[in-house]
Design a protein that fits this description.
Elements (H helix, E strand, L loop, with lengths): L1 H39 L4 H15 L2 H14 L4 H14 L1 H12 L4 H15 L5 H30 L6 H4 L6 H18 L2 H13 L5 H23 L4 H23 L1 H14 L16 H24 L3 H11 L23 H31 L3 H34 L4 H36 L6 H26 L9 H27 L5 H30 L3
Helix pairs in contact: 1-2, 1-3, 1-7, 2-4, 3-4, 3-16, 4-12, 4-14, 4-15, 5-10, 5-14, 6-7, 9-10, 9-11, 10-11, 10-14, 11-12, 11-14, 12-14, 12-15, 13-14, 16-17, 16-18, 16-19, 17-18, 18-21, 19-20, 19-21, 20-21
Amino acid sequence: MILQILTLLGSVTLFLFGLSLLSGGLQKVAGDGLRAFLASMTSNPAKQIVTGIGVTAVIQSSTATTIMVVSFVNAGLLVLGQAIGVIMGAHIGTTITSWIMAVFGFSFNMADFAYPLILLGFILRQSKKSQQRKDLGEIIIGFALFFIGFASLRATAGVLITPENLSFLSSWTNLGVGSIAIFLLIGIILTVCFQSSAATMAIIMILVTTGIIPFKLAAAMILGENIGTTIAANIAASVGNINAKRTAISHTIMNTFGVFWVLCIFPIFLKLVGLIVGALGLPDPNTADLTNDPQATTSLLFSVCTMHTLFNVVNTLILVWFIPLIAKMCCAIFPSKEGDDEADSLKYIQGGPLSTAELSLSAAKQEIINFGEICYKGFGHLRDAINETDPEKFEEKRKKLVRYEEITDKVEFQIASYLNEVSRGEISRRSSSRIKGMYRIIGEMESLGDAGESISRILQRCRAHGKFFDADQITKLNHMLDYLDDAYKAMIENLKMPYSSLKDITNAQDAEYNINEYRNALREEHLVSMEQNPDYNYQTGVFYIDVIVELETMGDFIINISEAQLSENE
């Protein structure tokens, strides 16, 4: 018995591992094109829902779809309302996995074809010339393991899941509303334990086709599975940022509402499922005696899938009209907090790497964009410090620059640690190249923080010696800062560009040229003033030119960032 239980658990694990490989391979193959499609096809609720269905059907993971949606909300490419529409579509798209199991997992013995598929997948995985072949091999192996695990689960369950072993369930099937509540709770618990709605649906199919539970209670478990998958999402989002929490809670609001109204008309909803199945020429699982009916298994499987799909489709058709209201509810539950603009915690990277390197690098890219914006805020404090004449206020600005140097150190370390974790996994050559570029980018950004703090020390020494820049020098420094401002804006613009869209960095190169030319002009002017102007204060001039040199060095760091971003496409 113990060995059989362990075999059952191993079968579930193999099933989930195969699904994970399948989903991961599909995400790799889809790559940037899938994310571009997701970002562009969200202009209205209908497109949002269709996009959610399509993306989830392609990558076979509503969780992965949700992760991408959250990253787009974080990046400002989608608003919360658009994200909710896509998630509604993902609810429908995830039901396709159930239909695949029902049609192929029971009607055909796919395990017979699985081992040759594993051989084919292994051969493709050995390809050294084409990353796409390796990813395709991963998809094929994942697909095969998915069905091997499902077949093993069915075989093992056939021994363990019997009326004799599960006689305790029989005592729970005739409690009326109490039975519905119990099996709804079982559906929730199974989904939370497995962290997979697909695994729960597989078990429901086995329970109902072996006669352990009637269709009515299988339907209750399906409702429980829809709540359970939202609990898993909220657990994952609990360590995330406010956008992740809002997205997860929208998932909960939608599915909980759906379960509530379906339970209110439960008998009517089951009759509707029976009518749809009957229209397909199969016996109604609610009324027909399926004991000796050769179509019993098909009827029950199609009824389970129809229930799952109908619930999500009808719930979506109802809630699509209330997307703005749902978004407001999510924002009310997790309101924005007025925080310090110097927050040094990561915004988009939460926990370890995501399901694939593609998604992990997408999160890292958003974090690097945020890092660039942090550096730009620090630059604003630098401008204030240069222009401040009041000693006390200058000291406040100087401490701000010291603080931003510490922030850049910390953020660089956190992003680098995350990239180290990602690089330990199996990644493509393109992903490896992008990681190298990201290391270079965050290193240059950390240097920007160092340069800002270095300038603050120069200004402090200048004031300690009783020296101050005159109005003409301040004007010219501000002109230099304007050129740097243009460079920062070009840097952030380039960072926000999708990899495939960034073809040149003329904007950054033009800004760097202006910085260098103006630095040269100011340095030449400084030398002429020392030689020809007897009123020119040499010591003040040294501090002045030191600041100019540091500002030009910051320009070098900034252009290096755009160059690294461009090199990631090579």
